[in-house]
From TrEMBL:
Name of one Pfam family that matches: SBP_bac_6
One GO term describing the cellular component: outer membrane-bounded periplasmic space
SUPFAM superfamilies associated with the record: Periplasmic binding protein-like II (SSF53850)
Protein name: Putative spermidine/putrescine transport system substrate-binding protein
GO annotation (BP), single: thiamine transport
Keywords: Signal
UniProt GO MF annotations: thiamine binding; thiamine pyrophosphate binding
N-terminal signal peptide: 1-24
Recorded superkingdom: Bacteria
Presence of the UniProt keyword Calcium in the record: no
Length: 316
């Protein structure tokens, strides 16, 4: 993940760290003190089995002695944005300091004035195409849309999107979220449409909606949010979700049931997520320290252990 240039940031333990410059080693000491004085970081929508976040959160708490208040782990990107809006004047436990959202939500949140700029020490190693030039949002990791399959029930895994329409998959296929708010589900619809439209990006959105309309009419779509529990129980034996989530489920379930993770032959979509700090963060210094942690080698390797492909590079 990230390495390199550290530019001096004048920080004080008593003053809000407002600069968007790249942090230097000595100013990091001030940032740590300021964050510890705040004592708490409030996150939202970070399931422990998503991209290794459970271990990352525990590592952050152990390293800095800061409490992490975790809001609504199963929320979608849209829910995170709404949480910022709803808590603009709230400095209590329901106001998120940081968000982890789908790529499209970064620019829109900036346009609405919901996030604040901050450039981590390893800023230069994040690709320009995956970050806002002013530091309002920045890519963290990405995955590829996949089919997660319960092999105890589904003897022959689908190989491509069109296979999901087959009668043998009746009452089996689910999305891993609500496509009205969850980036993972939105991306699943887009990927299906990309396949159905022959790779035409301009037509993928409408084609995806039509694909799922047909899937529902054929009785193959299950209107339940797909997770590891309904997968194991057989309620949703085929789930459309990011590969890293499917691989994490495979590890957690330990062969009960056997889980197959399939990258479809067409309509292959990789989805980048981005980090940002709320413009109304009750704990702005803890938020910035959290970003420094995530974009350090330690944090980036933590994401890698969670099967996520990093958006930056490590020094080791």
């Amino acid at each position: 993940m990230l390495s390199n240039a550290r530019k001096i940031l004048s920080l004080s333990t008593a003053v809000l760290i407002a600069s968007t410059s790249i942090a230097a080693a000595d100013s990091m000491e001030d940032l740590v003190k300021a964050a510890q004085a705040e004592g708490t970081l409030t996150t939202i929508a970070l399931p422990h089995d998503w991209c290794g976040y459970g271990a990352l959160i525990e590592g952050f708490k152990a390293k800095y002695g800061i409490k992490v208040n975790e809001l609504n782990p199963d929320a979608g990107s849209g829910d995170e944005i709404e949480a910022i809006k709803a808590n603009k004047d709230n400095k209590g436990d329901q106001a998120p300091d940081v968000i982890d959202v789908g790529l499209s939500f970064g620019p829109s949140a900036k346009a609405e004035g919901l996030i604040q700029p901050y450039k981590v020490a390893t800023w230069d190693t994040i690709p320009d195409t995956a970050k806002d030039a002013e530091g309002y949002w920045y890519g963290d990791y990405y995955g590829v849309m996949a089919f997660e399959v319960n092999k105890d029930i589904v003897k022959e895994s689908p190989k491509d999107w069109a296979d999901l329409q087959k009668p043998e998959y009746a009452n089996m296929v689910a999305l891993a979220g609500d496509p009205r708010t969850a980036n993972q589900a939105i991306s699943g619809v887009f990927a299906a449409g990309l396949s159905a439209s022959g790779g035409d990006v301009a037509k993928a959105g409408e084609a995806g909606l039509n694909f799922f309309k047909e899937l529902n009419e054929k009785g193959n779509f299950v209107p339940v949010i797909g997770k590891s529990a309904p997968l194991a129980q057989g309620t949703t034996p085929i789930i459309i979700r990011w590969d890293y989530n499917a691989l994490a489920d495979r590890d957690t379930l330990k062969g009960n049931p056997d889980v197959d993770v399939v990258i479809p032959a067409t309509g292959v979509v990789a989805g980048v997520y981005v980090q940002a700090i709320s413009a109304y963060a009750p704990h702005p210094n803890a938020a910035k320290l959290w970003m420094e942690y995530l974009y350090s080698d330690e944090g980036q390797l933590g994401w890698l252990k969670g099967y996520c492909t990093r958006s930056a590079s490590t020094t080791s």
